[in-house]
Amino acid sequence: MSDLVPDVSTPVPDAAADDAADAAAREFAQRRGSASAPDGSEVGRALVVVVGDRAAHGDGDTALGSLIVELLEEADFHADATVVVSGDEVEIRNALNTAVIGGVDLVISVGGVGVGARDVTPEATEALLDRRLPGIEEAVRSSGLAAGATDAGLSRGLAGISGQTLVVNLADSRAAVRDGMATVTMLARHVIESISDF
Predict the structure, then answer these.
(1) Residues 174, 139, 145, 20: what is their CA dihedral angle, to the nearest 10 degrees?
(2) C-alpha angle 75/76/77, rounded to 5°?
């Protein structure tokens, strides 16, 4: 009977594998960025919002924000800044709204999209969106599951347009960020060009 029970043990993180995957993600983003901006011009300005109580108090790891900035730059975006906020709906909304008012083309938030009590990024984001983009939301979730990033597949993260800004929520694991950014950067140029025509 025990032969029929699948092995569901959690794999131990491998730093070398993570580094190799990060490098592959940067290479992929660079190829996508080069394809989307052949003249070498920037696609647009971006801002990263890292959501996490520990990170906001200086105790947590903010390396995911740095990874997102690298992937954005590889895709020919200019990353204006990385903002770190706690898992508070008002703080998250204020950070996103400041980016929109500041006129950035793309805001990527990472964290706060699960089912925990402090996972309120989707609620903070929804209040700001003029139009949801469920195609991007589902693309991020389905590609995350296909890549083995369970948190990305179960994410409640949103994507949509606020004014002239594309806003996307990602889950906060390296795998979710790598895969999500590959999906988002591939679609972002088209969205940004479309909304700038209004």
Answers:
(1) -40
(2) 100
As a whole number of angstroms, the distance between CA 99 and CA 105 comes to 9
Helices (H) and strands (E) in the chain, counts: 8, 6
Determine contact, residues 68/155, Cβ cutoff 8 Å: no
- The arithmetic mean of pLDDT across residues 96-123, rounded, is 96
Question: What is the model's pLDDT at position 191?
Answer: 95
Entry field: residues in the chain: 198
Under the banding of pLDDT at 50, 70 and 90, the label for residue 53 is confident
Distance CA 166, CA 186 (A): 13
d(CA 62, CA 74): 19
Q: In whole angstroms, what is the distance from residue 170 CA to residue 62 CA?
A: 14
Burial 79-101 (b: 16+ CB within 10 A, else e): bbebbbbbbbbebbbebbbebbe
- Distance between CA 145 and CA 139 in Å, rounded? 10
Amino acid at 107: V
Question: Does residue 46 come out as left (phi exceeding 0), alpha (psi in the -120 to 50 range) or beta?
Answer: beta
